[in-house]
Amino acid sequence: MSHELDIIPGTEWGFFTLPRPMCIAGPCSAETEEQVMETARGLAAFGIHVYRAGIWKPRTHPGSFEGVGAPGLKWLKRVKEELGMKVCTEVATEKHVLECIKYGVDIIWIGARTSANPFLMQEIADALSGTDIPVLVKNPVNPDLDLWIGALERLNRAGIRKLGVIHRGFSTSAAIPYRNDPGWKIAIELRTRYPQLAFFADPSHMAGDRKYLLELSQKAMDLGLDGLMVESHCNPDQAWSDAKQQLTPTHLQTLLESLVIRENTSKLLADRSKVSHQIGRYKLEHNVAILQAGRWEQVLSDMIEKGKALGLSEESVSAIFNAIHDESVRVQNRVLEG
Ligand code: PEP
Ligand code: MN
Fold first, then answer.
1. Cβ(86) to ligand 1 under 6 A?
2. Residue nearest to atom 10 of ligand 1 (CA)
3. CB of 155 closer than 8 Å to CB of 126
4. Separation between Cα atoms, residue 122 and residue 120, nearest integer Å
């Protein structure tokens, strides 16, 4: 059964930048004020503008570092004020949500252990009701797509429309090189059902080791996902949690620069069609004729020249671009006809 979600696309949240990948980065855990600031400065230096840091950490064993708690939220506030970054942390209870609201956390994410728990999801959804904080929901630890969708539905029914997801892979007993099974099929299924959902991958928790980050990030991009959430720490080997999978801001910059971003042709055409729709509305409001023949001839002859430089024939370039242009005129005519 398919459930409707009433979502505001990431591109309308105000900070979600293109071209892909939109990258959220920061340490697994906020440890000290100095570590939070130094890491944030390193990331801001090459344009990262959404900062993550875990304040409350869901850990397997009691007694291991369970996060600095609410005092760390003051450090995130400082990151916002001094570096102009948006800040983002994980919540798992109503109390966490209320603290985040109090300290002006910009975006929150739901961890994999929490999205697997409908009681907690309902509690969080109720606590968020009435706010417009964007929420990113990680997949549940077990590969259960319906459970993931159920978590999204609970938030959506509470009025949260700035919704996105983070694919971080699934617990497995299989012998694989990664910490979690990427299980990309489930991500593809969710992407296909809800193409409007802002879609991130978390290569860090999928990999468990920084040596696999590039290949997993590239895979996420090849699947057309919008963004990455990556754990980055100013001194990864000394990190208080997930040391092996974190990388320095400088190494993250190199990783991002190494990604090859191939745009999917159907997506490019769909994006273009949205732009045509907007142009149609503008022309309608400003009483401008849809077909601008002179302008089109100019654009087409530019394309033909560029095509020739790449060894393409005039006939094939004009056939392709005329087809795209005809479709654009059709979309704009539909706007005119209401
Ligand atoms: C995290 O992002 O720090 C985290 C705890 O991740 P996950 O819920 O994916 O294990
Ligand atoms: Mn972590």
1. no
2. 112
3. no
4. 5
DSSP class of 21: P
Compute the distance from residue 241 Cα to the ligand 1 centre, in Å.
11
Name residue, tokens 């850990």: 59
Cα 265 to averaged position of ligand 1 atoms, centre (Å) = 33
User: pLDDT digits over 189-203, tens only?
Assistant: 999 999 999 999 999
Q: Are 270 and 259 in contact (CB under 8 A)?
A: no
* Whole-angstrom Cα Rg for the chain: 22
Q: Environment class of residue 108 by beta-carbon count within 10 Å: exposed (0-12), middle (13-18) or buried (19+)?
A: buried
Determine if ligand 1 sits within 6 Å of the CB of residue 210: no
Ligand 2 centroid, distance to 63 Cα (angstroms)? 17
Give the DSSP letter string of 40-59: HHHHHTTT--EEE-BSS---
Q: Residue 26 region, left (φ>0) first, then alpha (ψ -120 to 50), else beta? A: left
* Cβ contact 183:201 at 8 Å: no
User: Using an 8 Å Cβ cutoff, are 190 and 197 in contact?
Assistant: yes
What are 303-329's pLDDT values in tens digits? 888 888 777 888 888 888 888 888 888
User: The pTM is what?
Assistant: 0.84
Cα separation of 158 and 287, whole Å?
41
Omega before residue 19 within 30° of 0, cis: yes
**Which of 24, 28, 66 has most ligand 1 atoms within 8 Å of its beta carbon, as the pocket-test mutant?**
28
- Does the CB atom of residue 28 touch ligand 1 within 6 A? yes
